[in-house]
Design a protein that fits this description.
The complex is a heterodimer.
Chain A (H helix, E strand, L loop, with lengths): L4 E3 L2 E4 L5 E6 L6 E8 L3 E9 L2 E5 L6 E5 L5 E5 L8 E8 L11 E2 L3 E5 L1
Parallel strand pairs in A: 2-11
Antiparallel strand pairs in A: 1-3, 3-8, 4-5, 4-9, 5-6, 7-8, 9-10, 9-11
Chain B lengths: L2 E3 L4 E5 L4 E3 L2 E3 L5 E8 L6 E7 L7 E2 L2 E6 L4 E6 L8 E9 L9 E2 L3 E6 L1
Parallel strand pairs in B: 2-12
Antiparallel strand pairs in B: 1-4, 3-9, 5-6, 5-10, 7-8, 8-9, 10-11, 10-12
The chains are: A mainly beta, B mainly beta.
């Protein structure tokens, strides 16, 4: 158990819909990262938040947005869903948000999104 | 930009044998970190081992060791005494200080390892 909690574990929805994925980082971790894993694209970094502030953006579509709340939990919002958005979405946390190269990411179990 | 390459889509190894999973990387950073993660069929990502670019010794964690050759830009994972439970996808990842991803990890495509009895 990594200590990172993601909900829901599975989600099935239709094209055009909007969903919200939730992540609670490990106790004490200030950084939250979101990743998308699909068969064709592999593990793609989406966005990084540190202590409530956006720190870096990766390959995140404009239809997707995220935020980190004062209690450090984070939500990833996916809107106008398309078939190609079907993937496993991971949240990961770490203590560090800046400085240094040590510190692995601790991953949640992922939220598997299926868009029909 | 950083790039991680894992050239072996799939590998087989017999139980109790050692196996090496290849990883090469490209970066213009002078300071960076290299990571290996395991993803079993259940889906979770499990951290295995870390190597810093300035670490003089190769990292080891139990049956896992990292064969770090900085000049060749390779960071191969060696699993000794393979067990059936080692069957999984293995991902090499890198963090640098100059990448556009900030401090996120950039992952390779992964290698699927199957351990046979």
């Amino acid at each position: 158990d990594s200590g990172v909690t993601q909900t829901p574990k599975h989600l099935i929805t239709a094209t055009g819909q909007r969903v919200t994925l939730r992540c609670s980082p490990r106790s004490g971790d200030l950084s939250v990262y979101w990743y998308q894993q699909s068969l064709d694209q592999g593990l793609q970094f989406l966005i990084h938040y540190y202590n409530g502030e956006e720190r870096a953006k990766g390959n995140i579509l404009e239809r997707f947005s995220a935020q980190q709340f004062p209690d450090l939990h984070s939500e990833l919002n996916l809107s106008s869903l398309e078939l190609g958005d079907s993937a496993l979405y991971f949240c990961a946390s770490s203590v560090r948000g800046s400085g240094g190269n040590t510190g692995e990411l601790f991953f949640g179990e992922g939220s598997r999104l299926t868009v029909l | 930009a950083q790039k991680i390459t894992q050239t072996q889509p799939g590998m087989f190894v017999q139980e109790k044998e050692a196996v090496t999973l290849d990883c090469t990387y490209d970066t213009s950073d002078q300071s960076y970190g290299l990571f290996w993660y395991k993803q079993p069929s259940s889906g979770e990502m499990i951290f295995l081992i870390y190597q810093g670019s300035y670490d003089e010794q190769n990292a080891t964690e139990g049956r896992y060791s990292l064969n770090f050759q900085k000049a060749r830009k390779s960071a191969n994972l060696v699993i000794s005494a393979s067990q059936l439970g080692d069957s999984a996808m293995y991902f090499c990842a890198m963090r640098g200080t100059l990448s556009n991803s900030g401090y996120a990890l950039n992952f390779g495509k992964g290698t699927s390892l199957l351990v046979t009895p």
